[in-house]
């Protein structure tokens, strides 16, 4: 249990201190709400991914403002992958990255320091965790700028990769594909990585009845969440099961690990054109593989309940 300061008999635990590295992004927005509710959110760092970094940064600031947390700093990150050009996902996330929302510029300014500088500085802090819900570009740049970062930084929980089928190509997941070189840098540096890949996040589906329930809640964030989910549903695969809610899984893996099961595996990523971004479980003696933890199964109903609560009241504890 992770209730904080509630008199309901639960053990009181301190919320984990995290940095959320993200590219909002519809499902990233839900991840931000989950992080506000359940973590000590030290900062958001933004990255080029679903849309360009100008938009992901504006969206991040807007989402924090809407949620009533304008003082969480937003550090702008990389504007393109480390060694390739970017290809966005506007067909999934809409022209602004937040569906059809015409995202306003909010009063709280962007932080003066870059995402990489913020990650390097915050990694000095004991017990820091990083949750990454976009391409791993900022983390790879931090590693390339300062090799000791990989040892210093705490556990990194990342939504990315796919062991079975991909979503952007037959074999690759979007975050992994968008900056496969960055994934490779992170694996080789020996980051303490836990991944929430498509095999897992496809089990967490939200669709029209969640939208309807959110609309009835009437909070500002719930109404935005309903609008985002409507767009996501209309532009996703129509199999009647709703759309996969990828990114909140990586946040809830940190805050509610009891809802997931994990397995250790050596992982490699492809940087070849044909299979770019494909992640595979390597043989145990493959020295290029990074040994990581894979989230393998999830209590989807419980995770969705937490996502709904966080979207309704991102600042409530428990
Ligand atoms: C991932 O790619 C992005 O489009 C989503 O925000 C999520 O992080 C899913 O493949
Ligand atoms: Ca994302």
Characterise this structure.
This protein is an alpha/beta fold and 318 residues long. Helix content is 36%, strand content 17%. The strands form two sheets. The protein has a nine-stranded mixed sheet with strand order 3-2-1-4-5-6-11-9-10, with helices on both faces. Strand 1, helix 1 and strand 2 form a beta-alpha-beta unit. Helix 1 packs across helix 13. The relative contact order is 0.17. Residues 1-10 have low confidence and may be disordered. The structure holds beta-D-ribofuranose (BDR) and calcium ion. Calcium ion is lined by residues 22-23, 25, 27-28, 50, 133-134, 247.
Concise structural overview:
The chain has helices spanning 26-38, 53-66, 90-93, 115-122, 137-145, 149-152, 174-178, 180-188, 198-201, 208-217, 220-234, 248-255, 300-312, and strands spanning 17-22, 40-46, 74-75, 129-132, 156-159, 193-196, 205-206, 243-244, 260-269, 279-281, 290-298. By secondary structure, it is of the alpha/beta class.
**What are the low-pLDDT stretches, counting only 5+ consecutive residues below 50?**
1-10
Overall pLDDT level:
94
How many beta-strand elements? 11
Q: Gap between N and C termini, in Å? A: 8 Å
Gyration radius, rounded = 18 Å
- Report the structural category: alpha/beta
* Order of adjacent strands in the largest pleated sheet: 3-2-1-4-5-6-11-9-10
- Fraction in beta strands: 15-25%
Q: Helix content range of the residues, please?
A: 25-40%
Let me know the largest β-sheet: 9 strands, mixed
Q: Helix segment count?
A: 13
- What is the N-to-C order of secondary-structure elements (H for helix, E for strand)? EHEHEHHEHHEHHEHEHHEHEEEH
Ligand inventory reads:
beta-D-ribofuranose, calcium ion
Shape: globular
